[in-house]
Design brief:
CATH superfamily of the largest domain: Medium-chain alcohol dehydrogenases, catalytic domain
Structural class: alpha/beta
CATH architecture of the largest domain: Alpha-Beta Complex
Shape: globular
Order of helices and strands: EEHEEEHEEEEEHHEHEHEHEHEHEHEHE
Strand content: 15-25%
Number of strands: 18
Helix content: 25-40%
Bound molecules: adenosine-5-diphosphoribose, zinc ion
Length: about 350
């Protein structure tokens, strides 16, 4: 990534312009940086951002200039069947903002510049659809609030909204990065009795304890046996939060009868997963997935912010370091090396960040 100047158009009727306060370095952008997934270029990456509304288009009602907001990639139309049945995170008709030539929302010398997820949060400003932002409480610190838009929503939502973990359930979480740690704290909030954290990296396991893990298991071979042993027969829910076929299979294999494996990690483009057929039938287990928390983000983000303000959701320990935009490539190298949970880019002097 290089840092360059980009021209922004004014907000159209359904758009908002945001002064970015903070932006998290999520693993999903990394898939595009290294080319696991294709993306048209040039592109402004970044999607986990917080900021202050600077300008709104004439149709925008739910936020106004000066509001503190968090961006989310789950832009919705509000009118398709998925939106109308309460599943706007699965919107069939995301408001199209792909810039036609000459109509670029962002541009350089008149040439269109793309926005990852129609957002582009690694920047001082974002020009985005109004259905991509959630308002947050005024007293919410913006340098941690950005994480609500992706890692927290995705992780906590997978546990609470998708799996619907109940008090007393036993849970395993494979992959304890920025997202996995939030699955762990979602399961804790839901009252899980055992939360088994699995990761290759011992430092991540130590961090998992801070978020509520009751047992720690080193990733790799033998994980399934260890979890089955610890729980005397398997877990009710196993979450895969990496995006790899072998670990999805591990999640599936560590379930007790009637349990569900929840795929949260984003797999490599075009890859397959496989599960053994006989236990699938005989043990009435499920393999399900969860995207962006499986909940309308404008409902969940303010709730999760409130839980933070009440001291029930830990966001502070997610942030390993605050960095300047100029250190973004180094931040991603550290993410790839596994030495940080989340790095957050902060822009001085915006809101309360
Ligand atoms: N077994 C156990 N843990 C593993 C394994 C494995 N085979 N391979 C990797 N891990 C661990 C890493 O050590 C790291 O702690 O998985 C974790 C992944 O964390 P991050 O790189 O911080 O990724 P995160 O941002 O949490 O996202 C995880 O969810 O939203 C998606 O696109 C995202 O696919 C990514 C996944
Ligand atoms: Zn993300």
């Amino acid at each position: 990534m290089s840092i360059e100047d980009v021209d922004l158009d004014g907000p159209r009727p359904d758009e908002v312009r945001i002064r970015v306060a903070a932006s998290g370095l999520c693993h999903s952008d990394y898939h595009f940086i290294v080319g696991d997934m294709p993306h048209p270029l040039p592109v402004v990456l970044g999607h986990e951002a917080s900021g202050i509304v600077e300008a709104v288009g004439e149709n925008v009602r739910h936020v106004k200039v000066g509001d503190a907001v968090v961006s989310c990639i789950s832009t919705y139309c509000g009118e398709c069947t998925q939106c109308q049945t309460g599943h706007n995170y699965r919107c069939d008709d995301k408001p199209a903002r792909a810039p036609a030539i000459g109509e670029a929302r962002l541009s350089q010398a008149g040439k269109p510049v793309h926005q990852f997820g129609q957002l582009g949060g690694f920047a001082e400003e974002m020009l985005i659809h109004a259905h991509s932002v959630s308002r947050i409480p005024e007293d919410m610190p913006l340098d941690v609030a950005c994480l609500l838009g992706c890692a927290v929503l995705t992780g906590v939502g997978a546990a609470i909204e998708r799996a619907k973990v109940r008090p007393g359930d036993m849970v395993a979480v494979i992959g304890c990065g920025g997202v996995g740690l939030n699955v762990i704290q979602g399961a804790r909030l839901a009252g899980a009795s055992r939360i088994i954290a699995v990761d290759l990296n011992p430092a991540k396991l130590e961090l998992a304890k801070v978020f509520g893990a009751t047992d720690l298991v080193a990733g790799g071979d033998g994980v399934v046996e260890q979890v089955r042993e610890l729980t005397k027969g398997g877990v009710d829910y196993a979450f895969e939060v990496i995006g790899l076929a072998p670990t999805v299979r591990q999640a599936f294999m560590m379930l007790r009868k009637g349990g569900a494996a929840v795929m949260v990690g984003v797999p490599k483009f075009g890859s397959d997963i496989s599960i053994p057929a006989m236990p699938f039938l005989q043990q009435e287990v499920s393999l399900i997935s969860s995207m962006m928390g499986s909940v309308p983000f404008q409902v969940a983000i303010p709730r999760y912010a409130q839980l933070y303000l009440e001291g029930r959701l830990n966001l502070d320990s997610l942030v390993s370091q605050r960095i300047a935009l100029t250190d973004i490539n180094k931040g991603y190298e550290q993410l790839a090396a596994g030495s940080v949970a989340r790095s957050v880019i902060t822009f001085e002097g915006v809101g309360r960040a």
